[in-house]
Amino acid sequence: MTHADEPSEEKNKLGLTEKMVRLSIGIENWQDIIWDIEQALKTV
Fold first, then answer.
1. C-alpha distances out from residue 27 to 3, 16, 22, 39, 41, Å
2. What is the pLDDT of residues 27-44, one digit of tens each?
3. At 13, is the secondary structure helix, strand, or coil?
4. 6-43 core/surface letters (b: 16 or more CB in 10 A; e: else)
């Protein structure tokens, strides 16, 4: 959502596409983060 209001031209210039996924990661254990991502990708 950080670039949701940006015009398409600006997004293209920054290399941002609709296929990208933004991850917001806190201080979780890295193994938990990897597990969460793997589980999410399996369901897509």
1. 24, 26, 16, 19, 21
2. 889 999 999 999 999 998
3. helix
4. eeeeeeeeeeeeeeeeeeeeeeeeeeeeeeeeeeeeee
The Cα 20–Cα 6 span in angstroms is 15
In a domain, 27, yes or no: yes
The rounded Cα 29 to chain-centroid distance in angstroms is 18
Residue 18 domain boundaries: 8-43
Instruction: Say if pTM beats, i.e. exceeds, 0.90.
Output: no
Report the domain count for the chain. Answer: 1
